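Q: Got a minute? One more chain.
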Amino acid sequence: MLKRAVIVASLPLFASCAGLPPNTELVPYYQVETVKPYDEVLAELEVAIAEHNFRITGHSRVGKVIRDRGASGFPEYDTVQFCNLTLAKVVLEITPHAIGFMPCNVVTYQFDGKTRVKTHLLPEDTDNSALNAFAKEMNPQLRQIVDFAAQP
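A: Always. Here it is, folded:
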């Protein structure tokens, strides 16, 4: 069921990429949904980030701040930024343009009674073979972080 949701959620992304030339640095996304309580998703996200040897560098609780300003009932929206400076150094030595992918970022939000967990992946089909190789090692970790946070 989860794989089907990921595939269905990815179809608009694939359709929107159809007209792009190869070797662009398009940022793809990976997203899953869960019925797990929102606060548990955030807690598990923090655990998964630490287990992959990243450090949280920021956490924006956008939904909470909007509610605090008087919009009661506003849904949850959070962004969690994280980084590993050793990996950051490696990718920035590959290409300084990779700064646009940093820090790693996972968003969580409520939609249609479910919690969505989403992160951007690194492009794996650029004209920079070293960046492609780095991305192919990094993207599975990002997917694992998202999957761990969303698993029931």
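A: Residues 27-150 form a domain with the TATA-Binding Protein fold (CATH 3.30.310.70).
Q: Perfect, thanks.
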